[in-house]
Amino acid sequence: MKSKIKELRTYLDGVKSYRQTITQLLDEQQKWRDKYDKEKAKDEVANIDRKIEKIKSDERGMKQIQNAKLWEMGNTLVSMAEEKAKKPIDLSDTRLQSALQHIALGKMDYKRASDIALQFVGNQPALRMLKDTFEEKDIKSNIDKLVYAPSDFSSGMRDYAYNVIWQNGNISDFLRFVGKLAKYEGIEFDEVGNDDLVADMRTGAGLPRVN
Question: What is the predicted pLDDT for the residue at 195?
């Protein structure tokens, strides 16, 4: 999944570069157009108008391709997260065995419980089991910030793709949205701004932040 996120980020860089190129081309043509007298140089103005329309037409075609590609890439990330979340719990995981043994004692404070949960960032099956076990033992923790449904990101991927391509939306906003999914999956991503789930959870549990 990490490589797919990198691919999406690289593609968004390309979208940004293309957007800048189109803006530059249109600005150049507009500058030429402004130099002519609309009444005395009708042919020249008409020629420039045709060039401008050609640029915009080509841009519309490219935007259709970009929108479809971004949605495909975003949907692939969600699908990968969903498949990962459906995997059976690995009961042979010694870390999980140890965590369950400690929880079984029923005596665990908020800080310790949250610290245990942090060991399983990106492992939704294990986190859900721990969450249920915490609740059974009435143990408080911040585990809710790590448990999520990948399908909740599906419509957002589509909406952000549309916004970036057709409404010239902020590409950084899309990257921050992808960053949220990355953090849930335990993948380092430096475009999440204040949405660093793990760091926030550690702070809430009274634990030191890890960069």
Answer: 41
Count of CA atoms in the C-beta half-sphere (13 A) of 165: 22
pTM confidence score = 0.80
Q: Is the separation of the CB atoms in 45 and 33 below 8 Å?
A: yes
Which residues of the chain, if any, have pLDDT below 70? 191-211
Please state whether 168 falls in left (phi above 0), alpha (psi between -120 and 50) or beta: left
**Type of residue numbered 43:** D
- How many angstroms separate the CA atoms of 211 and 171, rounded? 24
Residue 166's H or E segment, with its range, is: helix 154-166
Residues 161 and 130 in one domain: no
Domain identity same for 65 and 133: no
Within a domain: 108 = yes
> Measured between alpha carbons, how far is 41 from 141 in angstroms, rounded to an integer?
74
Please tell me the predicted confidence (pLDDT) of residue 198: 52
Spatial distance between the Cα atoms of 4 and 13, rounded to a whole number of angstroms: 14
CA 202 to CA 16: how far, in whole Å? 35
Per-residue pLDDT at 211 = 40
